[in-house]
Amino acid sequence: MISFNYETDFELASEDLVSNWVSNSIHNEGFKEGEINYIFCDDAYLLDINIEFLEHDTLTDIISFDYTLGKLISGDIYISIERVKENAKDFDVTFDNELSRVMIHGILHYCGYKDKTEADQSEMRSKENYYISKLP
């Protein structure tokens, strides 16, 4: 089950469309959908989580807590809408494109993809682009 929670003024235009897209992406990777919670928030909210749980005093666009067991994908994905807006400007892409990238990025981490090395980043970006292209 995929749920969407809002700790800021932002709301998705179509939760059903996004939920189906995320579900299809998970299944395409050979995993099963467990309980996935997206929490959309602002910079201050996410900064507090970053400091409290990761001991990082920096702004970020996404923090995910992975509760995946075997092939059952579960977790909490916190996304700062403010960071996504800034990153969209910085990368010269639409807000919707950047939001989709961040949303699927968290899921891909749960599926085992990494992004620490240049090769891993390239594979992650390729997967992100592939799934973004599948959005209706």
From TrEMBL:
It holds the Pfam family YbeY. The keyword Acetylation does not apply. This is Endoribonuclease YbeY. NCBIfam families: rRNA maturation RNase YbeY (TIGR00043). Single strand-specific metallo-endoribonuclease involved in late-stage 70S ribosome quality control and in maturation of the 3' terminus of the 16S rRNA. Gene3D superfamilies: Metalloproteases ('zincins'), catalytic domain. It is found in: Cytoplasm. Zn(2+) binds at residues 105, 109, 115. InterPro entries: MetalPrtase_cat_dom_sf_prd, YbeY. Keywords: Cytoplasm, Endonuclease, Hydrolase, Metal-binding, Nuclease, Ribosome biogenesis, rRNA processing, Zinc. Its cofactor is Zn(2+). SUPFAM superfamilies: Metalloproteases ('zincins'), catalytic domain (SSF55486). PANTHER family: ENDORIBONUCLEASE YBEY, CHLOROPLASTIC. Its EC number is 3.1.-.-. Binds 1 zinc ion. Belongs to the endoribonuclease YbeY family. It is an enzyme of class 3 (hydrolase).
